[in-house]
Amino acid sequence: MVMYPIETLKLAGIEEILIVSGPGHAGQFLELLSSGWDMGINLKYTIQDKPLGIAHALWVAKNFADNDDVAVILGDNIFEDNFSESIKSFKSGARIFLKEVDNPQEFGVAILKDNKIVRIVEKPKEPRSNYAVTGFYLYDPNVLEYLNSLQYSERNELEITDLNNMCLENGILDYQIVKGFWLDAGTVEGLYNASTFIRKTKMK
């Protein structure tokens, strides 16, 4: 499944890619993907020793960013959209990508007012919006410095929602709507849909 997010980045014009993996899967990724040369990309690898959250994985990858803008995509997310124009238009701050869904309580949810985000809530029991925050994000180097100010959540993770809310509070967060389909295999329903999508793709 990791090939889909890699292909999304490649189609968007990104050729330098860092894979952040837990210690139990790093060898498998390296064996499967190697340097990425045969795909026309340059793959690097680093280890997140413990599952301490997406924002922690981003912190682990800080040195790879090397003071450049970064695109972050989660390994269990599948997108139809081509994000090349979104990346070209990105100038500074942070950008998240929203998708209207039927089950927002399973995701981080962006609350909108007058087409502006006023708050992002992680997996709300009673969602005030159907706009889920997908697993694709753009950040400039200054945003990565905010990682040092994050506090661990109740589930002992550095939450990407907290980072995005910090960007929102500082007036540097914008968003775009995902127009094509989006699948998150991190949920039971999403895993089923992703498996169905992959089977159909292989049949074509």
UniProtKB/TrEMBL annotation:
Q: Which reaction does it catalyse?
A: dTTP + alpha-D-glucose 1-phosphate + H(+) = dTDP-alpha-D-glucose + diphosphate
Write out the entry's keywords from A to Z.
Magnesium, Metal-binding, Nucleotidyltransferase, Transferase
Q: Which organism is it from?
A: marine sediment metagenome
Q: EC number(s) on record?
A: 2.7.7.24
> What family is this?
Belongs to the glucose-1-phosphate thymidylyltransferase family.
The cross-references to Pfam families, in alphabetical order and at most eight, read:
NTP_transferase
List required co-factors: Mg(2+)
Under InterPro entries, the record lists: G1P_thy_trans_s, NTP_transferase_dom, Nucleotide-diphossugar_trans
Domain (Nucleotidyl transferase): residue spans on this chain: 1-200
Q: Which GO terms describe its molecular function?
A: glucose-1-phosphate thymidylyltransferase activity; metal ion binding
Q: What is this protein called?
A: glucose-1-phosphate thymidylyltransferase
